[in-house]
Amino acid sequence: MATTHPLRISSTVAARKGIGFITTQAQERPVTLTSHGKPVAVVMSAAERDEQRRLLREVELKVLSMAANLVADRSAMLTTDQAREKLFASD
Protein backbone atom coordinates (compact mmCIF):
# COMPACT_ATOMS: atom_id res chain seq x y z
CA MET A 1 0.00 0.00 0.00
CA ALA A 2 1.04 3.60 -0.42
CA THR A 3 3.22 4.61 2.50
CA THR A 4 4.78 7.82 1.21
CA HIS A 5 3.86 10.68 -1.07
CA PRO A 6 3.29 9.83 -4.73
CA LEU A 7 6.31 10.03 -7.00
CA ARG A 8 6.06 12.40 -9.98
CA ILE A 9 8.47 11.61 -12.78
CA SER A 10 8.63 12.62 -16.42
CA SER A 11 7.99 9.86 -18.92
CA THR A 12 11.42 10.58 -20.44
CA VAL A 13 13.20 10.00 -17.12
CA ALA A 14 11.00 6.96 -16.44
CA ALA A 15 11.96 5.47 -19.82
CA ARG A 16 15.63 6.07 -19.07
CA LYS A 17 15.40 4.45 -15.62
CA GLY A 18 13.44 1.49 -16.97
CA ILE A 19 10.33 -0.48 -16.13
CA GLY A 20 12.05 -2.19 -13.19
CA PHE A 21 12.53 1.15 -11.45
CA ILE A 22 8.91 2.17 -12.04
CA THR A 23 7.47 -1.14 -10.81
CA THR A 24 9.71 -1.14 -7.73
CA GLN A 25 8.63 2.40 -6.87
CA ALA A 26 4.98 1.55 -7.54
CA GLN A 27 5.11 -1.16 -4.88
CA GLU A 28 5.76 1.57 -2.31
CA ARG A 29 3.72 4.49 -3.68
CA PRO A 30 1.80 5.56 -6.78
CA VAL A 31 4.02 6.81 -9.60
CA THR A 32 2.64 9.66 -11.70
CA LEU A 33 4.20 9.87 -15.16
CA THR A 34 4.24 13.35 -16.65
CA SER A 35 4.71 14.82 -20.10
CA HIS A 36 5.63 18.51 -20.30
CA GLY A 37 4.78 18.78 -16.59
CA LYS A 38 1.24 17.41 -16.97
CA PRO A 39 0.16 14.04 -15.53
CA VAL A 40 -0.47 11.45 -18.26
CA ALA A 41 -0.53 8.13 -16.37
CA VAL A 42 -0.37 6.62 -12.90
CA VAL A 43 1.33 3.33 -12.06
CA MET A 44 0.38 1.69 -8.77
CA SER A 45 0.79 -1.68 -7.14
CA ALA A 46 -1.80 -4.37 -7.74
CA ALA A 47 -2.54 -4.39 -4.00
CA GLU A 48 -3.27 -0.64 -4.04
CA ARG A 49 -5.51 -1.04 -7.09
CA ASP A 50 -7.39 -3.93 -5.47
CA GLU A 51 -7.91 -1.89 -2.29
CA GLN A 52 -9.21 1.09 -4.28
CA ARG A 53 -11.62 -1.16 -6.19
CA ARG A 54 -12.81 -2.75 -2.92
CA LEU A 55 -13.44 0.66 -1.37
CA LEU A 56 -15.24 1.89 -4.49
CA ARG A 57 -17.46 -1.19 -4.51
CA GLU A 58 -18.23 -0.66 -0.81
CA VAL A 59 -19.27 2.94 -1.49
CA GLU A 60 -21.34 1.89 -4.52
CA LEU A 61 -23.26 -0.61 -2.38
CA LYS A 62 -23.90 2.02 0.31
CA VAL A 63 -25.22 4.48 -2.29
CA LEU A 64 -27.48 1.82 -3.81
CA SER A 65 -28.76 0.88 -0.37
CA MET A 66 -29.50 4.52 0.46
CA ALA A 67 -31.31 4.98 -2.87
CA ALA A 68 -33.35 1.82 -2.29
CA ASN A 69 -34.32 3.06 1.18
CA LEU A 70 -35.40 6.43 -0.25
CA VAL A 71 -37.54 4.71 -2.88
CA ALA A 72 -39.04 2.37 -0.28
CA ASP A 73 -39.85 5.30 2.01
CA ARG A 74 -41.64 7.13 -0.81
CA SER A 75 -43.46 4.13 -2.26
CA ALA A 76 -46.74 2.60 -1.21
CA MET A 77 -46.21 -0.98 -0.16
CA LEU A 78 -48.75 -3.51 -1.39
CA THR A 79 -49.63 -6.87 0.00
CA THR A 80 -49.25 -9.85 -2.29
CA ASP A 81 -53.02 -9.94 -2.82
CA GLN A 82 -53.12 -6.22 -3.68
CA ALA A 83 -50.24 -6.58 -6.14
CA ARG A 84 -51.89 -9.61 -7.78
CA GLU A 85 -55.19 -7.70 -8.01
CA LYS A 86 -53.51 -4.71 -9.69
CA LEU A 87 -51.57 -6.96 -12.04
CA PHE A 88 -54.60 -8.88 -13.24
CA ALA A 89 -56.77 -5.73 -13.41
CA SER A 90 -54.49 -4.46 -16.19
CA ASP A 91 -55.64 -7.19 -18.59
From TrEMBL:
Family label: Belongs to the phD/YefM antitoxin family.
Superkingdom, taxonomy of origin: Bacteria
Protein name: Antitoxin
Biological role: Antitoxin component of a type II toxin-antitoxin (TA) system.
